[in-house]
Hints:
Elements: H1 2-18, H2 22-33, H3 41-95, H4 102-120, E1 121-127, E2 138-142, H5 148-156, H6 158-167, E3 171-173, E4 188-189, H7 195-203, H8 206-217, E5 227-238, E6 242-255, H9 264-279, H10 296-303, H11 307-322, H12 324-335, H13 339-345, H14 349-355, E7 360-361, E8 366-368, E9 374-376, E10 381-383, H15 387-397, H16 412-422, H17 428-439, H18 445-458, H19 463-466, E11 472-480, E12 483-491, E13 499-500, H20 503-506, H21 514-538, H22 545-558, H23 563-575, H24 579-593, H25 598-610, H26 614-627, H27 633-645, H28 649-672
Parallel strand pairs: 2-3, 8-13
Antiparallel strand pairs: 1-6, 2-5, 4-7, 5-6, 8-9, 9-10, 11-12
Amino acid sequence: MSWMLITTLIWAGALVASFCSETYRELWCDAFIGNWAEVSEDNRRRYGTVGSYLMNVLIIFIQIAFFLFFLFVLPFLYIFIGLPIRLYNNCLKKEEGNTISDSEESEEKQKTEKSWAERNIRLFHFPGKIPFDFDRDCYIYVENHYDERINRLIEIHWEEISEIFQRYNFRFIYIPRWKPDTSALRLANLKKDSDGVEVYLTSMTTFQYVAHLCKVLHFDFNEMESGIFHFAGFLSRDDRLYGRDIDSSRFTLFLMTDLTEDNIEWFFTEYCKVIENSRSYSMGGPYMSVVTRYTEAESCELCGKDQIVIADYKFPVDMKDMAENVKREIEALKEGGYYELLLHTLGSGIVDDLKGMELTPSLSRMQITDDFKIWLTDYDKEVRLTPLQKTLYLFYLRHPEGVEFKHLSAYYDEILNIYQVLSNREDWEKQKESVRRLVDVTDNAINEKCSRIKEAFLSVANDFIACNYYITLQEVEVRSEGGISNKRLKRVTLPRELVSYPTEIAAIKISRPQEKIEYIENRLADSNEWFERLNNRFYDKSYPKGKLVKVFTDFINSNSQFYAAYSKRAVLYTHIGMYREAIADNQVLIDHDAKLWSSAIINKAEALFFLGQYEEALKTAGFYFEKENEPDSECYRIRAEIYKKLQKKVEYKADMKEYKRLLKEEDKSKYND
């Protein structure tokens, strides 16, 4: 029908256009109106009156024949000629196992996945940082009423569902099958006997658990429809850089209304895939997993902070990432029934509300013996530490007020005295060097020691108990005339009346080096102010770049581990044509942390390009694209220029195309901001 309409329109248009010709109008009139008096004299003289009329009729007939050909014959020719070609192409595609292109299939899949996820997702936000630890790999079935259909499906297919989640290194928690490890109750101090608590924990329904969860998180219980509840992560005020400024904690609820007997495997597999795909974004997914691009320590370094300050921000991350044994210990606790999911994670307040009981750990006394062993006497267990680990731990036991890592060097003498007592077999110079390295928090030794201390206590008690003994982080807000600042104190929370020391340790003077601490703070303030001035000049186009290189060099000579300064000076070197010096500064950043300072890799490639070392430049640029998940337009432009010099036309065109595409997106983003 559409073909006939198009043909008719084309013919009508041609007919209208033909009437614009005076000669054609005469022919038309001659042929159909038969006005012999108005037939042109030329035609009559040439063909005669009858011949002129017959010629006109022939022309009109030919045009009608063309019209009928276009209307009826041509479509059949298209069908008969095109059908074998299409059949041949389809056979080829079937042989390849693909009826559409990979890109089309991928796009269609993404659209389907997105619409399915968006249709089922619900977002919940807790203002600020949640007051407990919640495992991001833990997924809990929740409901605000007993959903018989979904509960029946989970019960029947429990093993299959658990296996799907385990395949993605996730855990699916279904409260009716939750078997809490109540052995920890033996270490708890209950006002009433523990039988009531144990009975409640083992008989808790999903409905009851969700009610308490909503109370702790201040969520609307009525919105907790049947689905999978998940802690996605933290949202920050600037989620691209300042991860420490947490604005809210995000949770997701994925509704299970689409779940049926026939799609069990598909539903849970696709759910896990959505989470996994969302986590692949460097900025975190759109809703399933929110992950700030940089850690607190990394954002400090990028902004330009002294390494001794950064050490205080690395503490929580390194405690998690470095101590694999600690992680395995915690995993074992969770696999044992997630007892701490209620007691440690959600807090003892839940049990208070349930049974009117006060659940607090029954902590053991700690004795430092005469031969300097650490004994938890009521548990009859020894905590084994090396002399240097033990030195750091005893130091923090002696300072219940807490000490920031950046101030440790001020306590050098006290720490050295403790270490001398514990390691009297070592020579004096070796002792001093060990302590010097310990208090030099730009070296990662301090975080390694803290990790091993935590590991040692977890080997003798679960985390519900052990967290009172090992070194933990406590953030304290300090108000002054200069504004509000945060102290990141490291401390041991164990009540000191439970600790006893041998005479040799007790005799060591507890230092209060306030003047040294003030000196450290003043030096840090001066360095920050100095770098801020340099940074402002860096963006001042009128300031001579050659002169700025010199002042940056003076700063780096005084602050050799201020890595943001190397980054700025490398850019300046490139601008003034000192490419070898730019390469050297970029290499310092790459050697320090190639992933964090991935920009230094592409900057090095650019400097190599200007030196004419195109093969090496391409190799370096390739390394950059391996490290960086989100290359910007400029990075593609730089690599495109390298390809151009190497006469790689296909690669050059591909990178230039991506450069232009990203440039439009970046311009659009700036406009929207």
